[in-house]
């Protein structure tokens, strides 16, 4: 649980680095860079875009819950706080992993692929700005588990979740405006898929019951089959098995 756990960041730790045994090329990336050539298929960014939508929605839900706890003083039980801690752990771990993979794999790949690569420094800088806010949100959830009536825990959750939600809104919009067109134009589908695989490799299996249903939560039912067909089979199985459980737990936590 949050008060004693080292947290999702440390859970991933150095295993987010390129795998041992892979020979980094001159770019430092754990695979050779082969930029997209004219006429090559574009990388498919639909799941990347969907991951962004899910992060924004999850941050917004935490901000809404924080506001209700801090401003409306809604009752909240220890059981609800414990389940909230699971949802928050998955969200925080996913967001940290997402930022780290972009900084360590995605942006170096884009820089090595695009002849006139846009300046990605502000995006990495914003990841660093978000890090302490994510830490503070995680800490507030831990204190809420210890005491669901704690005014300071409720206030800190509200403040940091609201702040993070706002940061992500502008950051992700800018990321998709600046980086996405350059990725489509210059990163090969093969390299993009290698980046995508690396971003998933440290995903704890125990988190799939939250992560998969949450990622597709806002997908139009008419598009669900087409979109999930792009995901690994394990994720489709997780969605089928855990969606109902996730929905019940989600209602318990967020109302
Ligand atoms: Fe991103």
What does the overall shape look like?
A: globular
The overall average pLDDT, rounded, is: 91
CATH homology superfamily name of the domain at 41-206: nmb1532 protein domain like
Number of strands: 0
> What is the CATH C-level name of the domain at 41-206?
Mainly Alpha
Chemical compounds bound to the protein: fe (ii) ion
The SSE string, one letter per element, is HHHHHHHHH
What is the CA–CA distance across the termini?
A: 21 Å
Portion in strands: under 5%
Kindly report the oligomeric state of this protein.
Answer: single chain
Biggest beta sheet attributes: none
Count of DSSP helices?
9
CATH topology of the domain at 41-206: Four Helix Bundle (Hemerythrin (Met), subunit A)
Structural class: mainly alpha
Helix content: over 70%
Q: Any low-confidence stretches, pLDDT <50, length ≥5?
A: 1-24
Q: Over the alpha carbons, how many angstroms does the gyration radius reach?
A: 19 Å
- CATH architecture assignment name of the domain at 41-206: Up-down Bundle
């Amino acid at each position: 649980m949050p008060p004693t756990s080292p947290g999702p960041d440390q859970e991933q730790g150095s295993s987010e680095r390129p795998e041992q045994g892979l020979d980094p090329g001159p770019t430092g990336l754990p695979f050779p860079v082969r930029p997209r050539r004219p006429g090559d298929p574009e990388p498919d960014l639909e799941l990347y875009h969907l991951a962004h939508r899910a992060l924004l929605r999850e941050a917004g839900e935490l901000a809404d819950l924080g506001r209700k706890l801090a401003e409306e003083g809604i009752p909240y039980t220890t059981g609800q706080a414990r389940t909230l801690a699971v949802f928050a752990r998955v969200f925080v771990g996913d967001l940290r992993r997402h930022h780290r993979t972009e900084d360590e794999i995605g942006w170096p790949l884009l820089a090595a692929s695009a002849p006139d690569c846009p300046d990605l420094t502000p995006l990495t800088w914003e990841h660093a700005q978000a890090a302490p806010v994510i830490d503070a949100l995680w800490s507030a959830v831990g204190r809420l588990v210890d005491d669901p009536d704690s005014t300071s825990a409720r206030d800190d959750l509200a403040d940091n979740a609201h702040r993070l939600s706002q940061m992500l809104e502008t950051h992700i919009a800018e990321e998709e405006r600046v980086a996405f067109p350059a990725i489509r134009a210059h990163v090969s589908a093969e390299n993009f898929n290698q980046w995508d695989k690396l971003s998933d490799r440290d995903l704890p299996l125990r988190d799939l019951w939250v992560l998969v249903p949450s990622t597709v939560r806002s997908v139009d039912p008419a598009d669900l089959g087409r979109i999930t067909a792009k995901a690994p089979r394990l994720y489709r199985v997780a969605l089928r098995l855990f969606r109902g459980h996730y929905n019940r737990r989600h209602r318990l936590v967020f109302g």
